[in-house]
Amino acid sequence: MQAGQADHVENTDADQRNGRMCVLVSEPGVDADTLDTALTAVAASVYVVTPTEVGAQLWRALGARLILALGSAAVRAVIPWLALLHSAPSTATMAVLDGSREEILAVLERFDLWLPGRTPAPVVVQQVVAQWSMMERLSRTSGPRRIAGYNMVIDLGREEVVDTTEQRIPLTRSEFRLLAAMAVQPGRVVDFWQLGAVLPGQFRDADDAYNSVKVHIGRLRQKLTRATGWDGHLVSVRGRGFMLERRAPRPAAAVADSTLAADGVSDA
User: Among 22, 38, 53, 253, which residue carries the largest CB count within 10 Å?
Assistant: First the structure.
């Protein structure tokens, strides 16, 4: 963290309660002082970090409500963590950078909001305030975000999963966090390191994190299978990680028909 941020640390607990916390990721060579000062005027705690400081330890230490990536290097550093960040209720991500329209769309499709790199600091601050206001308004009017899966609903705000009869599926906190990290981006692979970051405690090495994720996923899969009658919710992608499958399983008859058609067999 840059010098001058230590005086913000003592306000961490209060900032987490009122939602006014922002992590500003700024690449080397990009002057973030003006933006930092402007954000601090509306946010009691603004943490400025470099892209090399982005990682599991940072997200564990700070309960950020908004993550702002300033510059292309900062954006690239944040992208691998978007699934984890978006799994936390009322957490938003923003990016400020220049580029062609195609580059912008390709890189930022998973951010909640982006602005051109030339945007003046006061305008960025206005967008931050607007984003916070929207999150707070949505939390009051629409309640927690609910994500539907096959025969279950994942409620990020209440941190629970219910079946078709609204009965709660008993999951541990770690199991729910793993499921939420995948649920916010269904159909996308979340790698082992990102999944390991949502689990409590520290790991000795990458193998330790990998094994811990595998054990928790195994238990989670068993619980979801028993509660929903389907074992296809969590899809393993060899060598990469896991993803959440929301599509309903195909009936056995439909699978048989498609197999026969592929083999050139018909009833005619």
Answer: 22
Whether this prediction's pTM lies above 0.70 is answered by: no
Decide if 84 contacts 198 (C-beta within 8 A).
yes
Residue 228, CA distances (Å) to 124, 150, 154, 246 in order: 45, 7, 13, 12
Alpha-carbon distance 169 to 228, whole Å?
9
For 176, half-sphere exposure in the C-beta direction (CA atoms, 13 angstrom radius) is 19
Q: Does domain 6-141 have CATH number 3.40.50.280?
A: yes
Residues 176-200 have pLDDT tens digits of: 989 988 888 788 888 887 787 777 7
As beta bridge partners, residue 25 has: 49, 69
Helix (H) or strand (E) run with residue 175 in it:
helix 173-183
Are β-strands 152-155 and 160-163 bridged in parallel, bridged antiparallel, or unpaired?
A: antiparallel
Longest Cα–Cα distance in the chain = 79
Q: Provide the CATH number for the domain formed by 146-244 in this structure.
A: 1.10.10.10
Q: Does 6-141 match 146-244 in CATH topology?
A: no
Domain-wise residue ranges, the chain: 6-141, 146-244
Nearest by Cα to 189 from 226, 250, 238, 143: 238
